Amino acid sequence: MLLEKIIENVDLELISGDIQNKEIRTGYTSDLLSEVMSCGNSDLWITVQSHSNIVAVATIIGAKAMILVNGREYSQDTIEKAKEEDICLLKSKHNAFDITGKIYAMLQG
Amino acid sequence: MQCYRADFHIHSCLSPCADITMTPKQVAKELVEHHIDWAAITDHNSTRNLASFEAVFKASGIAFLAGIEIQTIEDIHVLGYFPTVECALRAGSEVEQALPEIRIDPEKNGYQLVVNPDDTFREMLLKPFGFPTRLTLDQTVDLIRFHNGLAVYAHVDKAMGVIVQLGLIPDEPKEMPCELYMPSKYKAYAGRLSTRTVLSSSDAHNLDSFSESKMMIRCHTRTFDEFRKALEKEDGREVMLCL
Description:
The complex is a heterodimer.
Chain A: H1 3-9, E1 13-16, E2 27-29, H2 33-37, E3 44-47, H3 53-61, E4 65-68, H4 76-84, E5 88-91, H5 96-108
Chain B: E1 2-7, H1 24-33, E2 38-41, H2 50-59, E3 63-71, E4 77-82, H3 85-97, H4 106-109, E5 113-115, E6 121-124, H5 137-146, E7 150-153, H6 162-166, E8 178-179, H7 186-193, E9 198-199, E10 215-219, H8 224-231, E11 238-241
Parallel strand pairs in B: 1-2, 2-3, 8-9
Antiparallel strand pairs in B: 1-10, 3-4, 4-7, 5-6, 10-11
């Protein structure tokens, strides 16, 4: 499913990055970055962590986009690094359970 | 230059996860028995027991280093060391402001006791000292440095260490020293630690967890300034792990 379609249907705010032509097939939800690094490849990552290390970890797992939940904010440093790596940054005021559930249902449907 | 046996990560009866027997005289007795001659108290998010421990350690011939273990919003544990108890108290008071606005139940979460130098308890605190603060990693390091302190990543080889929480040690702050809980694991971590200064301490939460020191500090005297210079490897001073 295209990222554009997910954004149309789930309450997400685009912070930076290009949403065009990003195919999302898999996702992962976790805040422990060492665990995320060992999860294998994932197109989308949902987390509350906003430290700029999330960009390095997203690169390792091949994430095309990430969603920061619970109304947390990205630092400018994180936004700049994500632009360099072509990773789309999104955020939501909802919690990880709700966002994960909605997107999971869309991918399964 | 001298080599001092040091333990710079010890919890007192103020830490909710520590035993209530971690009182100044009891801890000093263990340190003397294990030939430690320089020690820090590093309670979770609090500095309120430092003055009592400083008095007793000094009387026992153990040089005292004022410390704290701050929990960041990412739940990374960061050790802060300060030139004086006064500096540490000011930093500690700011850390307390950043704790969640809840009260703990000592029966469930553990007792948090302010202690006098004679080992009697003065006050039981109900702030959630064992919880992460609202401070980001960067804000935590800035807070420690603003109060003239030194920041060290706690137990990078364990849960709540920076590597577990953030996957890798961030580039910034540059060259921040790291503590290894198991000095024997140094080889496994050497690549990630690179040129950083590495420390190792007991992280004692009860009287049974003291051992012979895990590190030696080579420097001139047992002062904060000499410790800082050892971290920076200045003029032959250094921190040496006991492997």
